[in-house]
Specification:
Layout lengths: L1 H33 L4 H5 L4 H19 L2 H6 L5 H9 L5 H26 L1 H4 L15 H23 L8 H15 L1 H4 L5 H11 L5 H23 L22 H13 L1
Length: 270
């Protein structure tokens, strides 16, 4: 444990900061679009137009984080469910996974608290309510199934794209596109979380714990199922690394298949 913390603390801190930035963005755009006296709220009708803007904003936020120097360093999981899925696939050491999870939850909470410090009544207004994620009008059962499905699809896309050499560098774009699409069309069903730390960060400040079990259980379940199915179809060696963007010069702390491929190539050349 102490060795992992000593050697990899920069990656743990980066995960916390990156999810914190994501939550600040989520709270800011939720306030701009949801607060009744906001100009953006007056310009945009409710429903799909507003969710399109929110989706684009959060999708671009995710892409920006993934392709930032810090996102390239930590792998930009930003999500305990993603980390758990890669841990199950053997790409992350147990202590690294534990510290990633702790960092992500801390980042989610602190990010909302920072947003609260400057958004104040806008963020606390009932129409915004700290950007909490709660089940939609179809109830908890449908929300639970929807969270499993969208989480499964996201993890399947991450694994498929990141392990396909010709398009691996675009994994962040695919992920961000899914986030934008889900917010636009799926959010009314489950609140569109896919991320236990993201939901907990908002719930902590709002003191809204409605159906929290959905967002703690469904995203990990969906991503773990995607990982298992991918390995069943492609084999364990098909998963190269836990980074969403590996085509960079940043160090990699994971059980990385790219390093093994380079060693093999060097042996062949020599």
């Amino acid at each position: 444990m102490f060795k992992a913390l000593h050697n990899h603390w920069p990656e743990y801190l980066i995960e916390a900061v990156c999810l914190g930035v994501f939550m600040i963005s989520a709270c800011t755009f939720a306030s701009l679009l949801g607060y009744p006296r906001s100009p953006a709220n007056m310009w945009l009708m409710s429903g799909i137009p507003r969710r399109v803007v929110m989706g684009l904003a959060m999708g671009l936020t995710a892409v920006g984080i993934i392709y930032s120097p810090w996102g390239k360093r930590s792998g930009a999981h930003l999500n305990p469910a993603v980390t758990l899925a890669f841990w199950q696939l053997g790409k992350i050491a147990p202590w690294d996974a534990c510290f990633y999870l702790a960092s992500q939850f801390a980042g989610g909470v602190v990010g909302v608290l920072i947003a609260r410090s400057f958004l104040r009544s806008w963020l606390a207004h009932p129409d915004v309510n700290f950007a909490v994620t709660t089940p939609g009008r179809f109830g908890t059962s449908v929300a639970f199934c929807a969270e499993i499905l969208i989480s499964f699809i996201l993890m399947w896309v991450i694994l498929t794209v990141s392990n396909t050499q010709s398009v691996a560098r675009y994994t962040g774009l695919f992920s961000g596109s899914l986030v934008a699409t889900y917010i636009t069309f799926e959010a009314p069903i489950s609140g569109m979380s896919m991320n236990p730390a993201r939901t907990f960060g908002s719930a902590f400040s709002a003191h809204v714990w409605t159906a929290l079990w959905i967002y703690f259980c469904a995203p990990p379940l969906g991503m773990l199922l995607a990982g298992r199915l991918y390995v069943c179809l492609r084999g364990t060696k098909a998963v190269l690394c836990a980074k969403l963007h590996h085509q960079n010069e940043q160090r990699c702390i994971f059980r990385c298949g790219y390093a093994a491929k380079r060693e093999l190539a060097n042996k062949v050349c020599s």
